[in-house]
Amino acid sequence: MRWEETVVEEATADKEDTSAPETVVQSSVPQPKDDFQEELVIRPLHSGDIYASFQFRTLWETDFMRGNKVSHYRLFPKSLGQVISKFSVRELHISFTQGYWRTMQWGQPFLPSPPGAELWVWFQDSVTDVDGTWKELTNVLSGIFCASLNFIDSTNTVQPSASFKPLGIGNVTDHRFLRYATLPREIVCTENLTPWKKLLPCGSKAGLAVLLKSEKLFHSSFHSQAVHIRPVCQDWQCKTTSWELRQTLNVVFDLHTPGQGKLEWSLFKMFSRTLTEACPLASSSKIYIDITDDPQGEQFEVSPATHLLSQAMVLGDRRTFSVYDLTQQITFGTVRSLNLLIRWKSSEDMLRPLLHAERYVAGYGLQTGEIHTLMYNNHPYRSFPVLLLDSVPWYLRLYIHTLTVTSKGKDNKPSYIHYQPSKDRVRPHLLEMLVQLPPNSVTEVTVQFERALLKWTEYTPDPNHGFYVGSSVISSLVPSIVAMDTNSTREQPLFSSFFPCKEESSYFMRVYTEPLLVNLPTPDFSMPYNVICLTCTVVAVGYGSLYNLLTRSFQIEEPSPGLAKRIANIIRKMRGVPPL
Amino acid sequence: MSLTGSTRRFSPLVPQENAGQFFSSGHTNNWAVLVCTSRFWFNYRHVANTLSVYRSVKRLGIPDSHIVLMLADDMACNHRNPKPATVFSHKNMELNVYGDDVEVDYRGYEVTVENFLRVLTGRLPPSTPRSKRLLSDDRSNILIYLTGHGGNGFLKFQDSEEISNVELADAFEQMWQKRRYNELLFIIDTCQGASMYERFYSPNLMALASSQVGEDSLSHQPDLAIGVHLMDRYTFYLLEFLEDIHPSSKANMNDLFKVCPKSQCVSTPGHRTDLFLRDPGSALITDFFGSVRKVEITMETINLTEPIHSFR
């Protein structure tokens, strides 16, 4: 037998390496390291809602970009690995969201996302035809996630020049390799959750993913599921890199029970399931409950109680969490199942979020309008710059000469403006501005537009619903209250390590505004049928009557005789006598 | 070899002779194309129709990779749905036909006449993913189910365009010429549905419709909590009939023709079998709705003459 010569070594894997992994045990060759972690963070919000955030992270030390194809997948899903290698993707971020995140009531999310579908991708610099690759990539992703991402084309894709810097390693700044698109109309339902769950190593059969039941998840105020792929450093010096796949699911439930002072929820009430085991393939499986608002335990009551506490710097604040480690059998107790129960009293007002934004359409009629974007800086004494990205479809023709940016009633000149005008039916407007927000103020950006009349085939089957304009994206480094941790390779919970932190005094925040719904002048699609009916009727009645009048000839006719006379005529005819 | 004490003679277990039993119906794989063509919340019942057929077909064995499901609008996660992520077929709310494991291939604005005809004929752009293609061959049995609003000779897609019976018949002829099916079962649940199969002329087609020309197909019952009609009568009784079918059932097409008589359906269901080469009584329900794989157990050991080499 020649098995000992068949070496399973991912670094030089041949295409025809068909040996099964279990049959070869080679101690001299290191297996590529892959690691899977799962966590759930539960945070009671001040409005009485509950925010649950799932994160599943797979790290894999491999290189998709070499000539030889990777052929042995273990924890990393094969469909995404093939997408990365075939389309030379450096970073991929895709999210599907139902609902809008209410920053003023709920605070900041761990991972922001706009309503609908959002996709942004950084390609490797070896790609020659980025637009063609982008189109193929969107088609393939539409098949993987059962979403109509194939509607992403040049009319809704932009190349931001300053927002959406890579979140992984690499300092490529050539924005020719970045593409960003949103589909605000995209629906999220079980058919998107099903393939998303199938990408997890344990599927939905073990670990935290058993809680993901669609009937409960979609009966919520906010639901967002996302996939993020990027290369990360494994150590401080960045000698080895690995690919990181994060699957995140954020959901906000409102479980208000009227009356009674205290609010109560449990895992069973939220998800209609309890936990029985961690995913066997996970190296870490934890649940964090945010108890920062009540460290003494007066207003909070968590059961089963746990002594494990953890502190983490997240969103510019130091938060305290109760930790449940699912890899320990003791967490499940004697009943072998974990159902967390918490009672809490909703306390006074929460800290206002430092950055908040709104957007709306002003004006009347179906010809012109005005887009207003408001950005609120709620910090009492610090000002900070924000980067505003606006992508407006071509059928709303922006008049950039009417663009005004005002703060506290005075003109506020942006220090950087990048504007790419639209081209009808080819590309949308792209407006990026760097605006300094004064402390404790509202900055208003307004621009006027004119609505275009589309060709009759370009209307959707339900044009009276309106047309969507994607959310504005506001990215900023916001001053933080506590010193943030800049060592990204240290062991920390997943929810605090998503956005890389370059300096201690600020943290990165991204805020999405509402999408706009704009009515375009819509023709009456029943008019061709009406016109044909009316014309044919007029022609038939008008011309027909005239023709009859002109060409009809009249003859005089005798009235028919009575019955007696008719019988007499018949007898006379039989006798051969002329009739009466 | 014959067993002692048994009066029956077993045929010699030579693989070639029994191979014929495997393919007595002539097909080796099954596909299904299920289309709901209606948009808007008050057409909830059309989505429920399509999902019940999807559910039956999955239960009887056809995998998601062989089903092309097209839903023109989203009812389950529609904001008017009081029970999100569910689509019910009956007002007792026992059966959630949407389920937990559904994969919709074409949804929303993608359900157009052009996409439907491209799926049938296989002329899709090269970057179309596999889940959106009908990759059938000449040994495939295909089930095609259409539902929506229709009239005499046409079916309406999403309130903005129509497909006529002539176009449909020509599409099937293209499929026959390109050898894309072995046998095809076409079911349509719309008003005046029988007009849609009048123009077929390709061989090996069998068609069922929920109503004759001049008749309307009626809906089954409304639900006061959801506020709309939940399902159409024909598909409701079809679902009831299919719930009794299991993968090894021997029920044949003649039983399917009896589903929903006029007393239950109010309209007269029709069917057309003149183009079908086999006798409908010999065609099993599972030939189209299921994906039955026949297994034969062999008692002999087979010696492979050459050792298997691993490739380098």
Helix fraction of chain B? Answer: 10-25%
Count of alpha/pi helices of chain B: 8
- What is the overall shape of chain B? globular
Report the radius of gyration of chain A as a whole number of Å.
Answer: 34 Å
Determine the oligomeric state from the structure. heterodimer
Secondary structure: elements and pairs:
The complex is a heterodimer of chains A (580) and B (312).
Chain A: E1 34-44, E2 49-60, H1 78-87, E3 89-98, H2 103-106, E4 116-123, H3 130-145, E5 157-158, E6 178-183, H4 190-198, H5 214-217, E7 222-233, E8 241-254, E9 263-266, H6 267-271, E10 284-290, E11 300-303, E12 309-314, E13 317-325, E14 341-344, E15 355-362, E16 368-377, E17 384-392, E18 396-407, E19 410-411, E20 416-420, E21 429-437, E22 441-451, E23 467-469, E24 473-479, E25 506-512, E26 516-518, H7 527-551, H8 563-575
Chain B: H1 15-22, E1 29-36, H2 44-59, E2 67-71, E3 106-107, H3 113-121, E4 140-147, E5 149-151, E6 154-157, E7 161-164, H4 165-177, E8 183-189, E9 205-209, H5 233-243, H6 253-257, H7 262-265, E10 270-272, H8 286-289
Parallel strand pairs in B: 1-2, 1-4, 2-3, 4-8, 8-9
Antiparallel strand pairs in B: 5-6, 6-7, 9-10
Helix pairs in contact in B: 2-5
Please explain how this structure is put together.
The complex is a heterodimer of chains A (580) and B (312). By secondary structure, chain A is of the alpha+beta class. In chain A, the strands form five sheets. An eleven-stranded mixed sheet of chain A has the order 5-6-4-3-7-8-2-1-10-13-12, with helices on one face. The longest helix of chain A has 25 residues. By secondary structure, chain B is of the alpha/beta class. In chain B, 22% of the residues lie in helices and 16% in strands. Chain B contains eight helices and ten strands. In chain B, the strands form two sheets. Chain B has a seven-stranded mixed sheet. A three-stranded antiparallel sheet of chain B has the order 5-6-7. In chain B, strand 5 and strand 6 form a beta hairpin. At the A-B interface, helix 3, helix 4 and helix 5 of A face strand 3 of B.
